[in-house]
Design goal:
It is a single chain. The chain has 17 helices and no strands. The chain has helices at 3-21, 26-33, 37-40, 42-62, 67-87, 91-119, 125-154, 156-177, 193-198, 203-223, 226-233, 239-262, 267-288, 292-320, 328-351, 359-377, 379-383. It starts with a helix and ends with a helix. The relative contact order is 0.15.
Length: 384
């Protein structure tokens, strides 16, 4: 894989750390800015919604820019949003900085995915995506726990500053490592914006995006609420929450890496085998979560299967959107983040039912089952 892909992954690591780090910082932010914890939770919602809306919007804005300039610009905007967030004493201003950071993140991912697809041969998009997503999995393994420790020791503002500092080598790496001639998506031989948007009328593209969103919703639905399962259902000490999150992150890294080698040549095999196994895994986790040993093992397995299947489906979005070289990355980013928003919302609703802490797990199972039924119902569309 080309070196610029790994430089892009460094930026994805910084942005992924920011996206997930708030889970452990909300109580401190709420106390410092004088708002209820529930109100502080709006920071997470603002970021997620900014990601969903920002992917196509920012990709459309940046399609007339040289890709290297667009990528560096989005990183700098992301850095600036975190610097302002680190010094503000106003909660509304902090909310605005999270929206701006989300727009920058969405724009960067959209352009980075399109750039990754352009840097490799046409039959290696899955491997290129695996390299990019390794930045996200590294964030769940090291960035998020590290941010939580830093926030505990030095306060939540230190974590925002740390993310801003991480953006500096990422920007320099992209600026120095990405060829200046890395193309403008609107070159004379490229399709017009209306032609790229017309790709969204293709049934296969819509179907693969929907499947990716459902699987990602299942993943983040349970991931968001792992803490109460660890301390409540399994009865483990709070310190085990970080260990479980790291296990999930390690599993996600294994899943993305494995799928990167299979999704280009054997995507049907990954989906046909990984889909049912992922469903069985959620059912097993819902049944045996009270057993600490089973919980630890299943969290790793589910991290592996979730990201293997999810990254394969997102890679298929890039393949199906080949006719939209500048907007295709935004379609993949939107599919990822629609799931990241919808999954936790559905899981949170399940917490208020008789299922209790395990409600999110059973919700994840339902979401994957829906994806499998959808794929089975439209298998002829997928097989064309």
């Amino acid at each position: 894989m080309p070196l610029p892909l790994y430089l892009l992954a460094v930026a994805v690591f910084a942005m992924g750390t920011s996206e997930f780090m708030l889970a452990g910082l909300l109580p401190d932010i709420a106390a410092d800015l004088g708002v209820p914890v529930g109100t502080a939770g709006l920071l997470t919602s603002a970021f997620a919604l900014g990601m969903v809306a920002g992917a196509p919007l920012m990709a459309a804005v940046a399609r007339t820019w040289p890709r290297r300039s667009g990528l560096v610009g989005f990183i700098c905007l992301f850095l600036a949003a975190h610097a302002v967030g680190a010094v503000t004493g106003s909660f509304p201003v902090l909310v605005v900085t999270r929206i701006v950071a989300a727009l920058a993140n969405a724009g960067f991912l959209a352009v980075a995915l399109a750039t990754a697809a352009a840097l490799v041969p046409g039959d290696r998009k899955g491997r290129a995506l695996a390299v990019l997503l390794s930045g996200t999995t590294a964030a769940t393994i090291a960035g998020v726990p590290g941010g939580a420790v830093l926030g505990t020791l030095l306060g939540w503002r230190a974590t925002f500053w740390a993310v801003a500092v991480l953006c500096l080598p990422a920007a320099i790496g992209v600026l120095r490592g990405l060829p200046p001639q890395t193309g403008r998506p609107d070159e004379a031989d490229g399709p017009a914006l209306r032609v790229e948007l017309a790709q969204l009328r293709r049934p296969r593209l819509i179907l693969v995006m929907l499947l990716g969103a459902l699987v990602n919703a299942a993943t983040f639905g349970t991931f968001t609420f792992l803490a109460p399962i660890v301390t409540g259902t399994a009865g483990l000490a709070p310190i085990w929450v970080s260990a479980v999150l790291v296990l999930f992150g390690l599993g996600s890294f294994v899943g993305v890496t494995t799928a990167g080698h299979l999704s280009d040549e054997h995507p049907g095999l990954v989906i046909a085998v990984g889909g049912p196994l992922l469903l069985l895994g959620w059912l097993a986790l819902g049944t045996f979560a009270a057993n600490p040993v089973a919980l630890l093992g299943l969290v790793f397995v589910q991290g592996t299967l979730s990201f293997a299947l999810g990254s394969t489906l997102i890679a298929r979005v890039l393949y199906e959107a080949a006719g939209a070289p500048s907007m295709g990355g935004s379609y993949a980013t939107a599919a990822l983040n629609v799931g990241a928003v919808a999954g936790p919302l559905a899981a949170a609703a399940a917490l208020g039912t008789g299922l209790g802490d395990l409600g999110p797990v059973w919700t994840s199972g339902i979401l994957v089952a829906a994806a499998l039924l959808l794929a089975l119902s439209f298998r002829r569309v997928l097989a064309r």
